[in-house]
Each structure stands twice: as structure tokens, then as C-alpha cells.
Amino acid sequence: MLNLFGRRLCSKAAAVPLLMPRFRMNNMTLYRHNFMLNNLAMRSMCSKADPETVKITFLNLRDNSEKVVDAKIGEHLLEIAHSNEIDLEGACEASLACSTCHIILPDEIYDDLEYPCDEEDDLLDLAYGLTLTSRLGCQVFVTKDMDGMTVKIPEASRNFYVDGHVPKPH
Amino acid sequence: MLSRGFRPITRFSRFFSMNVSVGTPGEKITTKGVQFGETGKPIYLDNQATTPLDPRVLDAMMPYMTNQFGNPHSRSHSFGWETEKAVEKARRQLADLIGAEKREIIFTSGATESNNNIIKGVANFYKSRKNHIITSQIEHKCVLDSCRFLERQGFEVDYLPVNENGLIDLDQLRETIRPTTSIASIMMCNNEIGVVQPVKEIGQICREHKVFFHTDAAQAVGKMPVNVNDMNLDLISISGHKLYGPKGVGAMYIRRRPRVRLEALMSGGGQERGLRSGTLAPHLVVGLGAAAHVCSQEMDNDHRWISHLKDRFQSKITAELTHIKLNGDEASRYCGNLNYSFAGVEGESLLMAMKQVAISSGSACTSASLEPSYVLRALGLEDDMAHTSMRFGFGRFTTEEEVDFAADNLTTAVKRLREMSPLWDMIQEGIDLSSINWTQPH
């Protein structure tokens, strides 16, 4: 629970250092844990209808694999990637302290979004393979307009794992 | 040594300037068959090629060449911390000189690297949307060469011509801008002829058209007031050794808001915000910072002193010589640069006749080639006048005696060479040299 809310809290209050303790657990436990929590939280918080979702495709440029997911409006892309077992690093858990959740948006979506804040821009400077429509996944919140968009995940991050190792979310 | 009126650092610089006496006063020293004054060295009037290191800068650098040797990127011990602190102080000093934020300064190895990084970096980053670059015909070679390199890669480049006075035409700039123009690179102060472009107006035009404006300010920063916000500058290149700092160090200014992005040329450890990987050289960086600091303190003094020297030199030679032409605009120029053409005199002969004065017939990078300067060609100078051009550069440490000596030496040499020259006789007879067909019929 703490982990879930910790992540959400940090993503909204940009640049706040991670206050919540990190839970280090293996990948599958985390996913299961999050999944359960998500469901639980959803059931308890949104007693009315299910929140609206849109279809978003994640295209991983590392192996050109695609995955279409249901993304809840209002969640950020890192959150969505993690809850769908998509390899997007996000080492700082959306506390705006790293560039490992670097994603590439389609032109029209990027142009419609607000210009990134200075802190995000500074981190983007450090992102691997920066493009004109690059953003940090933790700073992009899903809107209705994003229905059907394809988000690209770059080939690599700032981590120099050249042996193919993929770091797991903490 | 005469009194140097307005100079508060007179006594100080006498100890440290290049004129440190090696002989007894009045003694003449002969080196390689040329007789020099007390110093045994020629008089240095080539301050556009490089400037001597200010002794205050050397003092600041010394600790970082001796006991403070840490890697400024080391995070885990005090060796790293102390050099990092020094580097950050230098960054602040340089930022203050140009009215920028500290984080907008990226250190490089010099203005050539800065120009390469900026022009290629911006062009490459925005190439998916924009593929057009604007520059001028009188830029430094590193800018022109970077542009030619990009042309080979498929970018389109417009090289703006300049007017007879060396300044670009703002209307022409406006017309040249396309929706696909990513960057315009126009130098602030020209290295050969010293003209200062109207950068503020250029910046305004570029901003209106959403084009990034880069200016190569290697010859300007530290010598004239530069403010990145007042002048609408997005990117600038700075050189250490042109502002009385050490060689081998320079900087880029890259605007953070609105952010200018560039693709780094150097891959590596991600130092300097990933834009210029590679361990910084703290002693050089500290030297650049100290030089910037000294320049901001001495800006007014330098300006007064150097314009005084220029006026003195100019009045002496214009009183003695006719048929000389000042190249580049008379008003919009840096006071420490005079570029003159002497009709009827061959440039290289003049250089040879002035062995006691270190001057140049063009930029330092061209002086080994015999081609007349492309900058003067762009001004529309006839080849014969371009061949006789000579650049005189005055600086912080130039003295009145040196200027007087150089002016006397120059007038004597020009007069003597003209006496020997058949061209000079023709010029005096009023023959237009360009109307003559020099080739002989076979």
C-alpha cells in the first residue's frame, strides 16, 4: 500500500525526494503485489463505475516488441508500464531524479502537452537517445486524446548494461 | 616607460607584462639577426591570434597544477570536492561575465570545439523537422567547415554575403530564413577585420522566426559587454586564450529557457550535462573563470586604454601615409583591431620588413597559406588590396612605446617598399590597376 501511494504521491508533487521507504522485492512479487493493491484500491476508492481507460501501445525499440494495454485516464505512463509488465525502468520511482523512464511520444500528442518543467528538462538532457518528442514517462498523465497512441521505449537508458541485462523496478 | 594615464594596474602590469626586461635599460638585443629592444622579443601586436596570460589568472591556476590535482567528477573524497568547487566557481565567474545562469555554461577545449558542437549538435538534433542552416561568409573557418561538413550530410546551408563594411544585411537575413531553418550562426566580432555585427537585431529576427541564434563570440567576450538576454542570444562560443586566459579551454553558453538541445559530439561519461563528456581540466577551467572575472573588472579600463592606443596608432599612420584603407566598418568595430590595406605594397614583403613587430596579414590560421583572405574577398576588396592587408591587434598589455615604435616602423617600411614598387608609380600616375591586362601575349 505504502509503495503504491508513495509512487503516486511523488509523481504528483514533482521533484520531491523519495520520502517513502522503498520495498525491495523480486519482480514477480512486486507485480502481483501492485496488481492486487491496484484492484483493492480501485474497489475501495472508486465504488461507482470503473475509471475510463484508453488503449495505448508500448513499442519497445530494444526488440521491437509491441504490447497494447488499457491505460487508466489520469495515471502516468510509468505506472501503466509497470502494472502491465512492460520494461520501462523508472529507477527513481517517479520522484523526478533520473531519466530511466525516458519515452518517445508521437508528434501530435507531444505538441498538445504542456512544456516540461525545468527539472524534467534537465533530466531529459541526460537521457539516452533524446529526440524532439522525448518525455519522462512519470510526468506524462494519460488523457482521452491518447487513445490509440504508440509510445516508444528507447533502445537503452543511461545505465551501461551492455550485456543485455534489464534492471527491474525496485 | 611613459605613464599609462588611466591604468590603475600600471605598476602591477609593468612587473608582469611581456616587457619584463632581460637586458639593462637601453641595451639592444639581437636575435636571429634582428635587433630588438630591451626585451629581446618583437613587439606583440597580434592580440586577435592570442592574448598573453594575465598574471592574476596564472595565480589562480597554479594550485590546480600542483597540489590540488583531484578529478572534479570524483564524488567520494575531498580531492574531488575541492576541484569541483573550483570548477563551479569558474562556471559562475564566466556566467556572470555574460549575464547567464551558471548551469548554462559548458566547458570545452576552445571556441573551435564549441562551434563544432553547437552547429553540428543543433543541426543534428532538430534534423527530423529542420534541415536548413544560415551563416555568413566571413565566419571563422571552424564555423564554415562545420557547415560544409553538414552540407555533405544533406543539410542545406546559406552563406550570407556581407556589405562592403563587413556587416550583414538584416533584410537579407530575414529573407533567407525558412520555416525549416534550425540555426543561424553569425559571429559577434570578426577575428580578421574586427567588425561587430548587430547581434541584438539579428537575435530579435531569429527569435521572431523561431530560429536558434548562435554567435561565435571568441573575439568579443571579455573585451566588450556581452549579455545573453539583452542580445537575444541562444548559444555562444567562448575561447579562453582570447581573453587573457589559458589556451586549451573554452566554453559554450546554451540557453535553458526556452531550452536549446543539441546532440553531443562526444560520447562518454556524461560530464557537463552529457553535452561534453570527458574529465574537465580544472586548472584550465579555473584559468578561464579567473580570466572572465578579471575581464569583468577591467572591462572599462581595457576599453579606455585600448581605444587610446588605437587612436594613437591610427593618427600616426594616417598622418604619414596616403592610399591606405581601413577594412571593415569604422564605427561598428572592436577598438583593439585595425586591419589596413596599403596600396602598392606586397603584404608578405611588409611582414618581412617589420620583423621587430609581431603582426599578421590575416587570421593566424591563414597566415601559412598564400591565398588572400576570404574575409576581405567577401568585403569586395580587389585582390591586390586584399594581398596587402595587415592586422594590428592591441591588448591590455600593449604600451604606448610599443605602439609608437610599430607605427614608425610601419610608415618607414611602407614608404621604402613603395619607393621600390612599379605599381606605386602607376598608382600615383592615376592608373587604375584593375584595368591592366597583366598577361603577356605569346
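Strands of chain A lie at 53-60, 65-72, 102-104, 134-136, 149-153.
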